[in-house]
Amino acid sequence: MYDRDRILLETDLAALCDDVLGPRRGSGRSATWPCPDPHHAQTGRTPPLTVYRGRSGYERWHCHGCGAGGTAVDLVLVARGGRPGDALAFLAGRIGLAEDDRALLSRSPRQLRPVEPTPREVTDPEGLARYVRECAERLWRPDGRVVRLWLTSVRGIPENILDRNGVGADPGAHRQPRPDGIPRIFSRAAVFPVVEQDRAVFAQLRLLHPGPVGPRYLNAASSLAPNPKVALYEPCERAGECVVVTEGPTDGLSAAAGGFRAAAVLGTGVAGPTVAKRLAALGAPLVVAFDPDNAGSDGAFNLLGLLRAEGAPASRLHVPSGHDDLNDWMRARADDWTATLTVAVRGATRSVATHEPLGLGH
Question: Which of 72-86, 120-134, 253-267 has the lowest mean pLDDT?
Fold first, then answer.
């Protein structure tokens, strides 16, 4: 099973064109390539293909000579042939998506085997660090006010937690410089960096106003920085030693607001063996608090099996019925969130010995 959305979001289409169609002519938004369609006569003088970001949020290509176009999947199919599944497998390999991670949702925990990630470095560490730093500074300036209000008033995340974890504001590509590989957005977004050993190694953007069918989250391209799959967030004051494992940054920051270290998995579809190894290496009791929908339940079940296979003490905390996720629960219990989460985490850890997930609020 392939996560098509993730593959399309993480594929750098311009870099793919360079590899599949040959080096680009021109640079930036003016770059062009030959058409991949073998039936399209090529003049060699004016490569007709350009790359742009479609309304859905995915990068797309278009040949201005014959009208062919589509996503990265379509480019691979036209240029290399084969079936859609073959094209997805090819693209998944380019972004470093391991076989075990791709097949996670179709296999049981007992069938999964750990795989080691391929070591890769951030290709422009200074550019990524500068982008993250500038966005974090902008969050507290007047031009970051809209993003700040969305984070604090709409999502209910305290300002000290945002500051502690370097969350930022991106007003759009027309106002915020960015290294190649950070999505060129044209509206505001919150910037959630992944920081390891005091340096930014990845960034995920949350669009404040996504399109009706487009994605809400956009990742740095794999050509800039490999996806670490987990973002760690710190509370200002710890209420306990457990690490709360969540879906995505807003839930992770919500756990930090309740006094717990948080490990935000950047999508349940990536919660495979490599993520389990990273979480187990934290050396703390783990409480998985994924969303209460079907995808969250399946992801939590698989991850718990993998964590226990690693020998990590792990249990599940069910978000109470009537709440969509941990952030929604936090906003409903804003007056006593730390006490509420502390009681829930303590209750969940009591289930570790029996490996029985504890349902809270059901």
Answer: 72-86
Q: Let me know: does 49 contact 62? Beta carbons within 8 Å.
A: yes
**pLDDT single digits (tens) 283-327:** 999 999 998 888 788 888 888 989 999 999 999 999 998 898 999
Residue 228 structure tokens: 């670490």
Q: Which parts of the chain fold into alpha helices (H)?
A: 4-10, 13-21, 72-80, 84-94, 99-102, 125-138, 145-149, 159-164, 248-257, 273-280, 294-309, 326-332, 337-349
Using alpha carbons only, what angle is made at residue 239 by residues 339 and 346, rounded to the nearest 5 degrees? 65
β-strands 199-207, 189-196 pairing = antiparallel
* DSSP secondary structure string for all residues of 165-209: TT-EEE--TTTS---TTS---SS-EEEEEEEETTEEEEEEEEESS
CA distance 182 to 169: 13
Contact 64, 35 (CB under 8 A): no
Using the 8-state DSSP alphabet, how is residue 345 labeled? H
Whether residue 113 contacts residue 155, with contact meaning beta carbons closer than 8 Å, is answered with: no
pLDDT digits over 121-169, tens only? 788 999 999 999 999 999 999 999 999 999 999 999 999 999 999 999 9
Give the integer Cα–Cα distance in Å for 37 and 48: 11
* Dihedral pair phi/psi, residue 72, rounded to 5°: -60, -35
Torsion angle defined by CA atoms of residues 82, 87, 93 and 98, in that order, rounded to the nearest 10 degrees: -100
